[in-house]
TrEMBL record:
Protein name in the entry: Vesicular integral-membrane protein VIP36
Classification via InterPro entries: ConA-like_dom_sf (IPR013320), Intracellular_Lectin-GPT (IPR051136), Lectin_leg (IPR005052)
Domain L-type lectin-like: 1-164
Record's subcellular location: Membrane
Pfam families assigned to the protein according to its UniProt record, in alphabetical order: Lectin_leg-like (PF03388)
Chief location of this protein within or outside the cell: membrane
Source taxonomy: Eukaryota, Metazoa, Chordata, Craniata, Vertebrata
Highest taxon of the lineage: Eukaryota
């Protein structure tokens, strides 16, 4: 899907909001608290969030684009800007641009890719790329927006859908894709993720340090055992020499 959109308004700095959402859901859109749509939805949502609610989450800049897959059991946390349920995301300067801005959403063989063209370069920049996503067929496409206590203009100029020609395995051909439950096979806790300055989502250094410390401790343990073994062996050799 290619979406041409425009977010604009007279609000300066952070005095604007809230943003746009593009949906692929089991039910048609119903008015609700999540960017104008209902919470605990079934399906996929791409959020173009223009307002920071979490004042403690200063490690990312807004506007921020994120993705969420829901099976109807998870609520979107506005207070934390959806961090507890997002699959990934990137910062993108999408407000008050003097040129056309685009969003591309691609789903193929369980892989979800989101790209943006918001710099007037006529080229796509990767924003989200995650595998293990399972989405059924037969859902509804849609878009919504919300303003909250502030205001902004959210224009959807066009939404164009393209069918991808993909070769499926025999097992995939026999699968009833209408009965698949929306899910993600690999999901990282938002506590283990930070916003990368390059615009990608990655694990924090803490996880890497844990692995490093474990390896270091194991290596030190091996070295200590080797030294102790060498000392014991040397003392035994000396005792044997004295005996003879």
């Amino acid at each position: 899907m290619h979406v041409q959109f425009k977010v604009h308004g007279s609000g300066k700095k952070s005095l604007h909001g809230d943003g746009i959402a593009v949906w692929y859901t089991k039910d048609r859109l119903h008015p609700g608290p999540v960017f104008g749509n209902q919470d605990q939805f079934h399906g996929l949502a791409i959020f173009l969030d223009t307002f920071r609610n979490d004042l403690h989450g200063m490690d990312r800049s807004f506007p921020f684009i994120s993705a969420m897959v829901n099976n109807g059991t998870v609520s979107y946390d506005h207070g934390k800007d959806g961090r507890s349920s997002e699959l990934g995301g990137c910062s993108a300067d999408i407000r008050n641009r003097d040129f056309e801005t685009y969003l591309a959403i691609r789903y193929s063989r369980g892989r979800l890719t989101v790209m943006v063209d918001v710099d007037d370069k006529n080229e796509w920049k990767e924003c989200i790329d995650i595998g293990g996503v399972r989405l059924p067929t037969g859902y509804f496409f849609g878009a919504s927006a919300a303003t909250g206590d502030l205001s902004d203009n959210h224009d959807i100029i066009s939404m164009k859908l393209y069918q991808l020609m993909v070769d499926h395995t025999q097992e995939e051909e026999n699968l009833d894709w209408t009965k698949i439950e929306p899910s993600v096979s690999f999901f990282r806790s938002p506590k283990d993720n930070i916003d990368d300055p390059t615009g990608n989502f990655r694990g924090t250094a803490l996880t890497g340090w844990k692995v490093f410390l474990l390896l270091l401790c194991a290596l030190l343990g091996i070295i200590v055992c080797a030294v102790v073994g060498a000392v014991v062996f040397q003392k035994r050799q000396e005792r044997n020499k004295r005996f003879y």
